[in-house]
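Example 3.
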Amino acid sequence: MSLTVLTYLVVGFTFALYIGIAIATRASSTKDFYVADGGVHPVANGMATAADWMSAASFISMAGLIALSYNGYGGSVFLMGWTGGYVLLALLIAPYLRKYGKYTVPDFIGERYYSDTARVVAVICLILCSVTYVIGQMKGVGVAFSRFLETDYETGLGIGMFIVFFYAVLGGMKGITYTQIAQYVVLITAYTIPAIFISLQLTGNPLPQLGLGSTLAGSDVYLLDKLDMILVDLGFQEYTTTLRGSTLNMMAFTASLMIGTAGLPHVIIRFFTVPSVAAARRSAGWALVFIAFLYTTAPAIAVMARLNIVDTMQQSDGQALLIEEKPAWFEKWEQTGLLRVEDLNGDGRIEYTADPETNELTKLDNDILVLANPEIAQLPNWVIALVAAGGLAAALSTAAGLLLAISSAISHDLLKSTYMPSISEKAELRASRIAMAAAVLGAGYLGLNPPGFAAGTVALAFGLAASSLFPALLMGIFARRVNREGAVAGMLAGISVTLLYVFQHKGIMFIPGTSFLGGMSPNWFFGIEPNAFGVVGAIVNFVVAFTVSRVSAPPPSEVEELLEFLHEPSSVASQAPPGAAH
Amino acid sequence: MAEDKNVERRQQFAARVRSLMLRLLVVWFVVSFGFGILLVEPLNEIRLGGYKLGFWFAQQGSIFIFIALIFAFSSVMTRLERDYVDGEKESGK
């Protein structure tokens, strides 16, 4: 059976599974649609959260990002940042918002800060970060289709949109939750199987996490030492010790990703689906367990695939690879544009060095590490087909979660809570389906016509969540004195500072030529790169919010009651927060 | 009288939750920002098999410890809340 037919079969099977689940888990009330009726088991929710969280970027790009762009140790910012945020989420945010017991993040901000303005500002922040994030997923779907199934990008995107449309509009949070569980199983299988094979081949240890710390099979040289040595020989810096920028930049980058994670609405709303506060805490732990399967495997793939590539480029006699002897996967990936070789000095060999003057492997895209991994390691065709299905599962599950966050912000926060409070439950459910359909079409349109800024989007989404929503939620839960004026001013200040810094270095809306300070690192504030700036925006948010709150009237007594309710031991809690009847 | 006792118990509960959070967040900071970034160079002098220890914390160890922190929080909170409810039953007698 040819690889293409096999891939169609595997991907077709997973899609049939998602549609089957959608039909079985149709939403029949707004509570079903927004929070899956609050009846999801904590372990199941943990698994769904993991799929919701791990996007096309985690699945396809992260290992390559660590291995190539961030040269090993520098890539630790993603590993610690995207997992450490769950500690903040589990301790400081999720249990309290679950206790609050409503449907959306702006719901809480609107009530805690007794203000429609605060709610609308929160909706704007939410839509800004979710929309920038969803564009990346839509592109991921189109790219995965075009590379593995040899359709064109538009057709692939269309099929992906149809699938998401079907289960998200029909099932809402309920349908999305159960499809995400299936998608998690698909994506984690697809990610770990090639890693286990490669770890066995290189080190004889089937667990990639242990293989990474082992010696190479049949020798007493450690894998990591070998890679360090070879890279230094080729003129690169050491893999295990090279900083990303400075120590301060790595701290800021890690912190920005952590607090961004704890402030992303599509992740937070997943914790509204479990039956109790205790379940929300436990569920965050399970989510991180399921995420860790991928996140602790990724650094092993990064090292092993990079070593395999370097080895391929060196022949046994120590000479560089002859062009006519390059393996078959080389040509396949050259056609996709992810890989390019140019014989600059015309000696018929491909030299791979750190020096751009002599390096002849002129393009080595980050994504190739995961996508071409099975071929580089000469694994069977069904593994390649599985990787395609896994990449699609990762992109679709995250897209669906984001679309739900966007559509519930529109139908619940804007319509029901702000502009049309008299709307009936049935009409709200219909409105949420229409909002979902519009969000899917809008995301599809942006996926087909990606705006110029799409390249930097995922990092921007984290910066925005870190600088606006996370501080507003944290102060909302723990700082009694912070009031309406403080929260609104803080969110606006935090988001403006972050956007300004990103735009001044990367161009307004990322349009080249409009950056007024240049992307150059000498102009960076204390050497902090734009992607790491969310934490500075968050600090600005906190400072502005506390200062403004001090000089304006304290919050009314209802807020005091709400905070009492949030902090009382959960098993003695009454069913609903004060004032929730209306 | 019973009212005073309740307030006192509530404050005690809140203080315990705060100190639990604080201790866990200190560990969270130390294993990631501390061992993974600030102290990475001295720790890299120590080896854990093929891993330099600082590198291991940055790319593996901190993640395992994060998981342990969340489950520890979850189980201690459950115990604190149970104790609180038990105490309430007793004072209600």
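Residues 51 and 69 of chain B are 23 Å apart (CA to CA). Residues 53-92 of chain B form the longest helix (40 residues).
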